[in-house]
Each structure stands twice: as structure tokens, then as C-alpha cells.
Design a protein that fits this description.
The structure holds two protein chains of two kinds. Chain A is mainly α. Chain A is 75% helix and 0% strand. Chain A is built from 16 helices and no strands. Chain A starts with a helix and ends in a 6-residue tail after the last helix. Chain B is built from 16 helices and no strands. The longest helix of chain B is centred in the first third of the chain and has 32 residues, at 5-36. Classes of the chains: A mainly alpha, B mainly alpha.
Chain lengths: 302, 290
């Protein structure tokens, strides 16, 4: 009897296994093979010898990375641009969600949501084009207005401070609306009874926000924070590639663009893989670390 | 209960602030749209803000006649449609077995797939794999490395898991086998999640920029996204393509770039009602199980 049910189970499993095979093959070839390929960061990789026979150099590539001023500056650029992105970009959607949630008229709420979600669907090519149109020296409306008023246009995209502001701002602008979705979903799960009770106790709207609303979405906030920890030391390639220009190159060269220029275009595979491995390991440690901290608040992800 | 005076001020203040934020999201699009329909002089002197001045279709005719935009538009469609098909097939192949409690090695495989969300081989090793498979300069190099998004796969898996087991049991008693169960029962019941993922993947492929830049070498295979980027980035590419145009004197690069951006935005705006409906649903689905 038992072996019969085992047989039936096996019979049920065969089609599933056949079905899973291509997916498994995909993960092995395109996800796990590259992880194995990270070994070339300890080699002096060349095409003729391949992954298995290229000369082994140990940690030399890493030593080169961390003793070179240029790569150190690139890592530093990546770190602080991504931290800025996170520090500015993290609270904005929470505040926006609270604001949208407080709107009473449902048509106005729907209108705002419809409009603020839109930029999420634009690629960085589109956003980059908009940024240039808005802030360029030659023909932007803004700069012509400034020229009329103050005599000469302002090079927004060529000054470090204004460029970084535009860089971070455009990222926030693109994603703030869409990131509210998850908070808005969490906000609907807060029991109205809590608001009624606190109102009876004389709590103002501000007090309610602080003592009812925010604790109610705490789990979601921590969840989003853990997920975004993995992106420290990661500045999206599309974002930086479409916004940078030659005048701000010493601030806008980051790990992803450097890997592209030196690795894909320059053929320095081992050195750039070492840089990529460094990035992956840092992201991995940060996610696990954030998760450990979240465990203390009982909001851990895994 | 009556609201206090302070609460009322706050509420009005918030409404106004939200209006300003909404305007900030729409204004750049309207500005680009206006520039794309405006005449040379108005664009060059920076007069165009929220409506076109000296309305003309020149920018669009120059864009479609003087550049490779039509061909690259077609490439973008081919890459998006092909990519969505491939991604959906692979995602279903991964999600369906993993949604079944009796699937051998379910836990191990799930962990194995989850691990790729927190640790990746990175750009160069992936590039070398794609290169050694000989996929460079074909759309397979875009389709294959990103065929399954593990996040999307998890959304689909939890949707499959949510289908009432009674329905499946009934189908099995009627003699339904595993594969026909999938095609006749599970997939038809999963249309909302399928629509969501089709849109997730579709937007991803349409907006894909980095992979095309890395893996596609021949310019005639460029998709519209990359072509427009090149136009924005290099004035020379534009002036070159306009050199043999007799009306070039009437044209302004900003106008053509803007027209290009509008062409790139248009598909998004056209399917936006669907996007909004299903994307929101998808994010919710994803957030349920984390």
C-alpha cells in the first residue's frame, strides 16, 4: 500500500520535474555559472587560457583595486551617491503615502495616485532626456528665464553640487510615487477602531499619525529598509549613465560605469570582476546584517 | 466629530502640496510634448513651456524620415514581445512545480533560487557566459540572462499556492492529469497574475538599456530606447542624419530629441490604465509573502 502511494507520488512528480528542468537549467547557466565565474577575479584572465587555465594571481587584483587612488575614489563615489539616494529616497515615499492617505475625496486621491505613479514607467533614457531639456544651458526654459533675470544662465549640470542634487532628485522623483503603493497597502490594514479610540482620548491628527499610523506600518518600513540595504554600494547603471556628463566625471564615475568602461569595453575582465565581487559581497553582508537587526524587532525577512 | 481649526489647515496644506507634486510629475512630460511640436525659433530661445509655439510637425517628420527610428521601433517591439514570451514560459516552469507541496526537492530548489536574489555573479562573469554561448549581438543575449526574475517568480508561485485545492482535487477525480491541470485549470484561474507579470516583464524589456548597450554591437539591431539615448547624448549623430535633409535649416536638435522621447513614452501612456491596475496588484501580491 505504502509503495503504491509512493509510486503515485512519483508519477505525479515526473511532469513537474520535466517542467522544472528548463527553469533549473536557466538558473544553473545564467545565475550559478557566473557565480562560479567570479573565480577569475583571482586570476589574470585571458580568452586563450579560459577560466580554468588562466594564471592564478591570488589577491593581486584586489590589492590593485584598493591601492589605486582612482578605484578608491570610484568606490567612494558609489558609496556616497547611493547613501544619498537612500537617505533622501527612503523617507519621501512614506511621507507621500501618509499625505495621500489623509486625503478624503476619493477622486482627488485617485488623481494624485495616477499621476505620481507615472514616472516609474519611464526609462532612465526618458528621464535623462527630460533632465537635459529642463536644465541645459542652451535652450531650457529655466535657463532662459534665469538669463533674462540675472544676465547669464546657470550651468546646473556642470557644477558638482547642483548635478548631485539633480541626480538624487530625479531618482526620488521617478520612484517616490510608485514606492508609496506598498505603504498605502499597509495603511489600509490599520484598524479604524484605533483612530476612533485615540480621537476619543483627544489625540490630534499629528498625535494620531505618530502613535497610531506610523507604528501600524512599522513592519513594512523595516521590510523596505532591509531590501534597500542590499543596494548600498549600488548606483544603477542606467541612472548614472543617462545623467552624467564630462564636466562632472570625477564625481559621476561609479562602480557600475567603471566595470562597463574598463571591463566590457577595455577587456580588463579580472580586475573588474574583482570589483564586482567586492560589490556583491558587501551587498550580501548588508542584507544579512539588516535582517539580523530586523530580527530584534521581529520583522525579519528570512 | 468636528475637526479642529489646525487639522483643517493641515488638510488643505496637504492637498495643495499634493497638487504641486502631481504637477511636478506631469509638467516635464507636457514640456517635452510642447517642444516636440514647436518651431525652431521658439525652441532655441527657450520660450516653450507648457504649450507648443508655432505648431509644426517638422520634428516628427525629420525623426521618422531622417533617422533609423522606425526600424529601431520595430526592434524594440520584437525584443519586448519575444522577451515577454520567453520570460513567461520560464517563470511558469519554475513557479508551478515550486507551488506544489509534493514536488521533490521543493525546499532545496526554492532556497537555491532565493539565494540568487541576495548574491549574484555580477556583470562581467555573466557577460563571459553569454559570450561563450555565442549569443552576443543577438536578442538571445538580452532574453536569456534575464529570463526569470526571481521576484516575479515568487509572485506567481504564491498566486498558484492560493488557488483552492478543492478545484484541483475535483479536476483530478475527473481524470485530469498534471499538465492538463496546469493548462485547463491553473493558468485560466491565474489570468490576473499572468497579466501583471506580462506587464512587469514588458515594461522591463521596453525600457531595457544597459543590456542592449552591452550585448548588441550592430547599430541596426539597436532598440528604440538605445537609439533615442544616442540621439540625446550626441548632437553629431543628429546633425549627421540631418545633413542630407534640405529642410535641415528649419530644424532644431532639441525638437527632434523631444519627438524621440515622446515616441518612447507613447506606448507606456497608451497601456497606462492597464499598467496602473495590474502593477498595483502585483506589488500587493509581492508584499503579502515578502
Amino acid at each position: 500500500m505504502k509503495s503504491a502511494s509512493k509510486k503515485a507520488l512519483f508519477k505525479k512528480n515526473v511532469p513537474l520535474m520535466l517542467m522544472f528542468a528548463p527553469a533549473l537549467a536557466y538558473y544553473l547557466i545564467f545565475r550559478y555559472l557566473p557565480i562560479g565565474g567570479l573565480v577569475i577575479s583571482f586570476e589574470n584572465y585571458n580568452f586563450f587560457d579560459g577560466v580554468f587555465h588562466s594564471p592564478w594571481v591570488g589577491f593581486k587584483n584586489f590589492e590593485m583595486l584598493f591601492s589605486n587612488d582612482k578605484t578608491l575614489r570610484i568606490i567612494w563615489n558609489t558609496l556616497w551617491l547611493s547613501v544619498l539616494n537612500l537617505v533622501v529616497g527612503f523617507p519621501v515615499p512614506i511621507i507621500l503615502a501618509l499625505m495621500i492617505n489623509s486625503v478624503r475625496r476619493s477622486w482627488y486621491k485617485r488623481f494624485v495616485q495616477t499621476v505620481v505613479y507615472l514616472p516609474h514607467f519611464f526609462s532612465w533614457v526618458i528621464v535623462g532626456g527630460m533632465v537635459i531639456t529642463l536644465f541645459s544651458m542652451e535652450s531650457s526654459f529655466l535657463n532662459h528665464w534665469i538669463e533674462d533675470k540675472y544676465g547669464e544662465p546657470y550651468p546646473f549640470l556642470y557644477k558638482t553640487f547642483s548635478w548631485v542634487t539633480i541626480f538624487v532628485g530625479s531618482g526620488v522623483w521617478k520612484e517616490m510615487g510608485f514606492s508609496t503603493i506598498i505603504y498605502l497597502a499597509a495603511l489600509t490594514s490599520i484598524s479604524p477602531a484605533l483612530y476612533e479610540a485615540s480621537a476619543l482620548d483627544g489625540a490630534s491628527k499629528w498625535k494620531q499619525t505618530w502613535h497610531v499610523t506610523l507604528p501600524g506600518i512599522r513592519g513594512t518600513i523595516i521590510l523596505v529598509l532591509i531590501l534597500s540595504m542590499g543596494r548600498v554600494l549600488e548606483v544603477g547603471f542606467d541612472q548614472i549613465y543617462n545623467l552624467r556628463n564630462a564636466m562632472v566625471s570625477d564625481i559621476s564615475e561609479v562602480i557600475s560605469t567603471y566595470i562597463y568602461t574598463l571591463g566590457i569595453q577595455g577587456g580588463q575582465f579580472s580586475l573588474t570582476t574583482a570589483l564586482g565581487l567586492f560589490e556583491s559581497v558587501v551587498a550580501f553582508i548588508l542584507i544579512l546584517g539588516a535582517n539580523l537587526i530586523a530580527k530584534k524587532f521581529n520583522s525579519n525577512l528570512f | 466629530m468636528r475637526e479642529s481649526y489646525g487639522d483643517k489647515i493641515t488638510r488643505i496644506g496637504i492637498s495643495i502640496l499634493l497638487l504641486l507634486i502631481s504637477i511636478s510629475c506631469l509638467a516635464p512630460v507636457i514640456n517635452i510634448l510642447s517642444i516636440s511640436f514647436s518651431g525652431k525659433q521658439a525652441v532655441e530661445t527657450g520660450k516653450v513651456l507648457l504649450w507648443p509655439i508655432d505648431v509644426t510637425l517638422q520634428s516628427y517628420s525629420a525623426l521618422f524620415e531622417g533617422t533609423r527610428v522606425l526600424a529601431s521601433l520595430w526592434n524594440g517591439v520584437v525584443m519586448t514581445v519575444g522577451g515577454v514570451l520567453i520570460s513567461m514560459v520560464f517563470t511558469i516552469c519554475a513557479a508551478y512545480p515550486l507551488s506544489k507541496g509534493y514536488f521533490y526537492g521543493r525546499r532545496t530548489f526554492t532556497l537555491m533560487l532565493l539565494f540568487t536574489m541576495v548574491f549574484t555573479g555580477g556583470l562581467i562573469p555573466t557577460y563571459l557566459v553569454v559570450k561563450s554561448l555565442g549569443l552576443i549581438d543577438s536578442y538571445w543575449s538580452i532574453w536569456m540572462p534575464g529570463a526569470v526574475s526571481t521576484y516575479n517568480m515568487l509572485i506567481m508561485r504564491s498566486y498558484f499556492e492560493g488557488i483552492e485545492p478543492e478545484i484541483e482535487e475535483a479536476a483530478r477525480i475527473d481524470g485530469c492529469r498534471e499538465m492538463s491541470l496546469l493548462f485547463r485549470i491553473v493558468l485560466p484561474l491565474s489570468m490576473p497574475v499572468i497579466a501583471t507579470l506580462v506587464l512587469f516583464y514588458g515594461v522591463g524589456y521596453w525600457n531595457n538599456f544597459m543590456n542592449v548597450l552591452i550585448y548588441i554591437n550592430s547599430t541596426e539591431k539597436y532598440t528604440i530606447t538605445v537609439l533615442i539615448q544616442q540621439m540625446i547624448a550626441s548632437q553629431s549623430l543628429l546633425t549627421e542624419s540631418l545633413a542630407n535633409d534640405t529642410t535641415a535649416l528649419e530644424l532644431v536638435p532639441e525638437g527632434i530629441k523631444s519627438a524621440g522621447i515622446i515616441v518612447l513614452i507613447l506606448p507606456m501612456v497608451l497601456i497606462y490604465p492597464f499598467l496602473q491596475k495590474y502593477f498595483v496588484k502585483g506589488v500587493m501580491l509581492g508584499s503579502v509573502k515578502g
